[in-house]
Write a structure and sequence with these properties.
By secondary structure, the protein is α/β, with parallel strands linked by helices. The chain folds into three domains: about 5-240, Rossmann fold, CATH 3.40.50.300; about 255-295 and about 515-650, no CATH class; about 305-480, no CATH class. It is about 45% helix and about 25% strand. The protein has a six-stranded mixed β-sheet with strand order 6-7-8-3-9-10, with helices on both faces. Strands 13-14-19-16-18-17 form a six-stranded mixed beta barrel. The chain has a four-stranded antiparallel β-sheet with strand order 2-1-4-5, with helices on one face. The protein is rod-shaped, with a radius of gyration of 45 Å. It binds adenosine-5'-triphosphate. Adenosine-5'-triphosphate binds next to helix 1. Belongs to the ABC transporter superfamily. Macrolide exporter (TC 3.A.1.122) family. InterPro entries: AAA+_ATPase (IPR003593), ABC3_permease_C (IPR003838), ABC_transporter-like_ATP-bd (IPR003439), ABC_transporter-like_CS (IPR017871), MacB-like_ATP-bd (IPR017911), MacB_PCD (IPR025857), P-loop_NTPase (IPR027417). This is ATP-binding cassette domain-containing protein.
């Protein structure tokens, strides 16, 4: 049984509806160890026949059998495998991959064998030595002579250890000396027990083989044996495997490196957009953080004030009735318990406040604009001298004690007793509340000149009781266990309703102010980041255009890679990975630059405020990488599909 059998091969080309038959029923058998030359007039269909034998052409009728087994040329994958395992190509125009070195050109084919990296490299070197190119392995194809290029092509064709070598006019572009050398190499290949099928115009070349087949008018004119075929061996052939993704990545990386100048520009374009997105996001984080920080400095964001919700005043508590215990605005014990029992509420304290409190000492009087009770919300930070007020004690500010109550030194006021009186509006009438308290300490003067006093909760409650007022608070001060729970907790309290579905409480916290400020900052950040994002669309277009150009420029390479057995998918990955490499390097470059600028801006502003105004988070960096990957994937998708869909024969004939 012949190794390769062709049965009734017919092939026509169509121009419009007009049919041009090229092969009109070819029946041929080929044996291993033969060096067959196919001779025929120009345009006689020799290359067409070779493409069919080589598994590049699927559009024909008839049968190709390998070792007696029908090759299903309708199955693309089966043909990919056939080219990968069984066929090695040598062309008149060498068809080397221009951006790969001599060694890499041979390694491309070896990537589809089961050899490990070291073995692949040593086999490539061995083959290059065999064709006399051991000293040229680092050169690129454009640095070689025609004869040298053809020898690289021979080494590549042999790399995957194929049984059949197809050589389409292998000496067509060579001088006499190189022709002889190449023919010797082909003869040696046949001697190894392989089948060499070569197409030629030259009788001299044909005479170098063991058999000559003449084609005329699409049919076999003659089939002449010159010498017996060489003996075949049962030597085990190299194992083959589909191209691993890593190999596509390597080839993509090599092309990327080869084209580095051009690629740098694309990277720069993409990186600028990504950099702006990362930096603006970081700036947004920094500014919102700063605002939150500043607000948190003056008030505890975990602290929430709750008052009774009133429809009439549109939810606003009336300051004049704040101390009007027993009024509609006061909390009942059950309500306080209800709030205390709300999840994440860790502490609830009654909050009282009185306005315009007349304070007298030793005949001198002062008006304390706001008197409140000391709660866990208050810190001793603002106390200049003395300590927090205990029972029957009060804290007054420095201006009040020195300028109004006549103490020459604020410290002298400590321990002195003052009388405090204020009015509580209770319906139509006003009830006076009076108590005496010892000055426990002096606080820093209020920057707006507002006189402030702080007394203990018991003191104010006792004073209210003495005046016949209820101590039910109109305002509660509650603590939320964790900053992250403030929003949800206040929302929950705001939503509490009584049995007739009336809203009961109204909360206010600095968290809502921080939130609002941050909403504006986020809005501004997002607008800026979107503008930066638009530049990314431009980058994506740039990558698409470049990729399309690259597909056109690399059409021949695509044909070569398909011919050595790479599948459509492999070609697609080749372009996608190159685009991904561009995207990833852009993202690395962009984030690196953004971190540098972050450090620069933060260092420059350190004098203004000791705060990092740019805060690039891991999330921002991730976003940049995800964007880069998305852009490069999307941009590569169409060109990569186009590349993979190219007909390998057309691709090979590209200039
Ligand atoms: N893609 C194609 N579309 C239409 N006609 C084609 C196509 N490819 C080849 N042909 C025609 O088919 C015929 C056979 O072409 P082929 O290249 O197989 O001939 P050949 O014997 O190899 O010629 P040469 O010795 O000049 O290389 C020619 O007439 C050619 O014009």
């Amino acid at each position: 049984m012949a190794y390769l059998e062709l049965k009734n091969i017919r092939k026509s080309y169509f121009l419009g509806k007009e049919e041009f038959p090229v092969l009109k029923g070819i029946d041929l058998n080929f044996d291993l160890g033969d060096f067959v030359s196919i001779l025929g007039e120009s345009g006689g269909g020799k290359s067409t026949l070779m493409n069919i034998i080589g598994g590049l052409d699927r559009n024909f009728s008839g049968e190709v059998l390998v070792k007696g087994k029908l090759l299903d040329h309708k199955q693309e994958k089966e043909l990919d495998r056939y080219r990968r395992e069984t066929i090695g190509y040598i062309y008149q125009s060498y068809n080397l991959v221009s951006h790969l070195s001599v060694l890499d050109n041979v390694l491309v084919s070896l990537d589809m064998t089961t050899l490990n990296k070291k073995e692949r490299e040593s086999r490539a070197k061995e083959l290059l030595q065999k064709v006399g190119l051991e000293k040229q392995i680092k050169k690129y194809p454009n640095q070689l002579s025609g004869g040298q290029k053809q020898r690289v092509a021979i080494a590549r064709a042999l790399a995957s250890d194929p049984k059949v070598i197809i050589a389409d006019e292998p000496t067509g572009a060579l001088d006499a000396e190189n022709t002889t050398e190449v023919l010797e190499l082909l003869n040696d290949i046949a001697k190894e027990g392989r089948l060499v099928i070569t197409v030629t115009h030259s009788q001299a070349v044909a005479d170098a083989g063991t058999r000559i087949v003449r084609l005329a008018d699409g049919q076999i004119e003659s089939d002449e044996r010159l010498k017996p075929a060489f003996a075949t061996t049962d030597k085990e052939m190299l194992g083959s495997r589909p191209l691993p993704l890593m190999a596509s990545i390597r080839t993509a990386a090599k092309h990327f490196k080869y084209n580095i100048k051009h690629n740098s520009l694309i990277i720069l374009g993409t990186a600028i957009g990504l950099f702006a997105v990362v930096l603006f996001s970081g700036l947004g984080n920094g500014i919102s953080g700063y605002i939150g920080d500043q607000i948190a400095k003056v008030a505890n964001p975990q602290s929430v004030t709750v008052s009774r919700y009133s429809k009439e005043t549109d939810g606003e508590s009336n300051a004049a009735v704040l101390l009007g215990g027993g009024s509609k605005q006061a909390f009942t014990a059950d309500q306080i318990k209800q709030i205390k029992d709300t999840s994440h509420v860790s502490k609830v304290e009654n909050s009282y406040s009185a306005t315009n409190v007349n304070t007298t000492y030793n005949g001198k009087s002062a008006t304390v604009t706001s008197l409140t009770n000391w709660t866990s919300e208050d810190t001793t930070d603002s106390i200049k001298a003395g300590n927090a007020p205990k029972e029957n004690e009060v804290l007054l500010d420095e201006t009040t004690v020195t300028k109004r109550l006549g103490f020459s030194n604020y410290k002298d006021a400590i321990g002195k007793e003052v009388t405090m009186t204020y009015q509580v509006q209770n319906g139509q009438s006003a009830t006076p509340v009076t108590f005496t308290a010892k000055i426990a300490g002096v606080t820093k003067a209020n920057s707006q000149g507002i006189a402030q006093g702080l007394t203990s909760t018991q003191t104010i409650q006792a004073a209210m009781e003495k005046s016949g007022l209820s101590t039910a608070p109109t305002s509660l001060n509650l603590k939320v266990d964790n900053m992250d729970n403030v929003k949800a907790t206040t929302k929950k309290i705001d939503q509490i309703k009584d049995s007739s579905s009336n809203r009961l409480y109204k909360t206010s916290s600095v968290m809502s102010i921080i939130d609002q400020a941050q909403t504006y900052v986020n809005l501004a950040t997002n607008v800026l980041a979107t503008i930066a994002g638009i530049s990314l669309i431009v980058s994506a277009l740039m990558i698409i255009v470049t990729m399309y150009m690259s597909v056109s420029a690399r059409t021949k390479e695509i044909g070569i890679l398909r011919a050595i057995g790479e599948s459509k998918g492999d070609i697609q990955w080749l372009f996608i990975t190159e685009s991904l490499i561009t995207g990833l390097i852009s993202a690395i470059f962009a984030t690196g630059l953004a971190f540098l600028v972050e450090a620069g801006i933060n260092a420059a502003l350190k004098g203004t405020a000791d705060y990092a105004f740019v805060q690039i988070t891991a999330g921002n960096v991730t976003t940049a990488f995800v964007l880069a990957i998305l852009i490069s994937l999307l941009a590569a998708m169409l060109p990569a599909r186009r590349a993979s869909k190219l007909n390998p024969i057309d691709a090979l004939s590209a200039d």
